Amino acid sequence: xxxxxxxxxxxxxxxxxxxxxxxxxxxxxxxxxxxxxxxxxxxxxxxxxxxxxxxxxxxxxxxxxxxxxxxxxxxxxxxxxxxxxxxxxxxxxxxxxx
Length: 98
Hints:
Order of helices and strands: HHEEH
Radius of gyration: 13 Å
Largest sheet: 2 strands, antiparallel
Distance between the termini: 32 Å
Structural class: mainly alpha
Strand order of the largest sheet: 1-2
Shape: globular
Low-confidence stretches: none
Number of strands: 2
């Protein structure tokens, strides 16, 4: 989830593009989406237990679970494409079997 006027969202944009390219080239079993805050009400209908409190917010939807990348109190991963890939791997996202 991003806000188009947010400096941090704008700074993260090239990293999200790198992430999307890496996901495609590595064949990871995940979809990468960028959701403008203007669509937040529709997203919140789907995930009623999650509140967006900062931008950009990066979430991994896995079944009924929602896992947040780097919640404010736990800055474990680097805020770049490589850090997000590490987060995905740590949360069970693997390459597609050939």
